[in-house]
Amino acid sequence: MSVPAIFDPVKPTFRRTSVVIRSGVIIIFVGYAANIFGLGDALDGYAADLWRACFRARLHEFLMFEALLSVMGFAIWSTVCANLWMFGCPKIDGSSATSVYHKEVWYWYISNAVGYLLSIYIYLLLRNPRINPAAYETPTFGRLAVEVAVGVFLYDALFYPIHYSFHRPDLFPAWWISLHRPHHDNYSQKQLTTLNTFKQHFVDGAVQVMVNIAVQHFTPLPMVATKHPLSRYIHNLIVTYLLIEAHSGYDAPWHSHRVWPWVFGGSLRHQLHHHKGTVNFHQFFKYMDHTFGHAQDARV
């Protein structure tokens, strides 16, 4: 199937990396400005109210809640993105936009959900974790914003070299390359849909889960011991959304690459990644693709 998009090669440059850094500085500046004008207290109040509601529901005591929230996030976001055709949103590749619900979708989603939940349950049994001590702290909006932003950034950054390795048969053994092949089936090379978010080898998915677990145990704030549970909840909802959006095959006005085009690659770049397999290895952002010369833009 021909693709009616114009693909622009992008030369290696450190400019995108500096753009991400500048964007972070701007966010910090906006945060301080909001605090100066009295918005900080209001935002802190909203964050405190939200956590009090979660705490009263004793979500912090249910150690499987984060995993269930991720499964629920995938279900909600995939339902929304799979039905954008009903609102007249065109597919990026110009193909007909219709419902993607069929038996294969449910098979891949349910098998992934069951495998993921079972794996997390076994992990928790072996690790025997205690209740997160941060659950007894009331988070500020600033803490949530920083922990979530850094968590999403690190998840994408840590998975980047792993994802890149899946596409280098000249450097890695065939068995390793084969783990990522189900995610790049012939269908996804023609028309990318939310189904491809779940269509993956178990080991491929497990690697992504392990990266996410590592990120969820890290907080960039030196004054606190561990990442707040509410930050972890929000992180899971954002990551699941961005993964579904990237594989949706749509170019909606509210997609990340439209809202923040100088930071996010979004569905446009990930569509091209599935079509070619040799460019755009970021799942969310763009800076390392630009830095190492793996970037290619798509202008529809």
TrEMBL record:
Pfam families, A to Z: FA_hydroxylase
Location of the protein in the cell: Membrane
Gene source species: Perkinsus olseni (Perkinsus atlanticus)
Domain Fatty acid hydroxylase residue range list: 149-293
GO molecular function: iron ion binding; oxidoreductase activity
Residue ranges of the TM segments: 20-43, 63-86, 106-126
Highest taxon in the source lineage: Eukaryota
The protein's name in its UniProt record: Fatty acid hydroxylase domain-containing protein
Record keywords, A-Z: Membrane, Transmembrane, Transmembrane helix
